[in-house]
Design goal:
This is KIF-binding protein. Keywords: Cytoplasm, Cytoskeleton. Its main location: cytoplasm. This protein has helices at about 1-20, 25-40, 50-65, 80-100. With about 100 residues, it is mainly alpha-helical. It has one domain (about 1-100). Helix 2 (about 25-40) packs antiparallel against helix 3. The chain starts with a helix and ends with a helix.
């Protein structure tokens, strides 16, 4: 799983070099969402009691998307902003669950 993650992450980062936010908003956000999904899928490979590792992965999910949201025009990208905000909320919800479980 780790090798698959590394290869996928590397390829997605290369795609971001071409699909920059300024000019390719939908594609850029879709790639970022794919990266976030990779991090989320990696949490399944950690033990339920490995709270620290799981928390780091969920925090990365939020950190990837949070800075992008204010850069988007809400009139043009309302749905994309909503999807990203939902994903950020899910990441923070998981972080809260982890803190409660500790």
């Amino acid at each position: 799983a780790s090798q698959f993650f590394k290869e996928s992450h590397s390829l997605l980062l290369k795609a971001l070099d071409f699909f920059v936010l300024d000019g390719f908003v939908s594609e850029h956000v879709a790639i970022q969402m794919d990266i976030v999904a990779l991090y989320e899928s990696m949490t399944a490979f950690y033990e339920e009691t490995d709270y620290s590792s799981q928390a780091k992965l969920h925090k990365r999910r939020a950190n990837i998307l949070e800075p992008i949201i204010p850069q988007l025009n809400p009139q043009n990208f309302k749905n994309i902003i909503g999807e990203m905000a939902h994903e950020v909320g899910e990441a923070y919800n998981r972080l809260a669950d982890i803190k409660i479980a500790q």
